[in-house]
Specification:
Number of helices: 3
Distance between the termini: 40 Å
Helix content: 25-40%
Largest sheet: none
Number of domains: 1
């Protein structure tokens, strides 16, 4: 098997949804597990795995567009109001 690239990582992470975030994170980990510590692609993959972990506690990547106001009733309880860059707190 050839050495994984950033593009290979992006191909796995790009279409991620909250429902499949942890399955994709496992695939990314498997993809780069044989790369040495400090390898550029492994470091990139680790950052993407952190994104997938946050996405697993969110409802979307929601990197663009308007945000739901935090003072909206139910914000703390409605996961759909929690994008990956600000997921709901773990309980």
């Amino acid at each position: 098997m050839r050495e994984p690239t950033r593009e290979d990582v992006d191909a796995l992470v790009g279409p991620a949804t909250p429902h499949f975030a942890y399955q994709l994170r496992a695939r990314v980990r498997e993809l780069v597990q044989d790369l040495p510590e400090g390898h550029e692609v492994r470091g990139y993959a680790e950052k993407q795995m952190e994104l997938l972990d946050r996405l697993g506690h969110a409802s979307s990547k929601a990197e663009e567009g308007p945000r739901v106001a935090r003072d909206r009733p139910g914000w703390d309880e409605i996961p759909s109001a929690a994008p990956a860059d600000e997921p709901l707190p773990r309980r």
